[in-house]
Amino acid sequence: MPRSDYYDEDGSTVKNQCPRCGDTFLAEHSDREHCGKCGYTEWK
Questions:
Q1: pTM for this model (two decimals)
Q2: 18 marked among binding-site residues
Q3: C4-type zinc finger positions in the chain (predicted)?
Q4: 1-44: per-residue pLDDT in tens?
């Protein structure tokens, strides 16, 4: 995936970052975003 999918335009703020872990990305699924490290899920 392109870097722009993970970072804002200025390159400093991480998108889709887990609010619990803070250091992992949320995986994007068709109906949810999920953290593989802690199990946090945001339903769409």
A1: 0.64
A2: yes
A3: 18-38
A4: 555 565 666 655 656 889 998 888 888 899 999 999 999 999 98
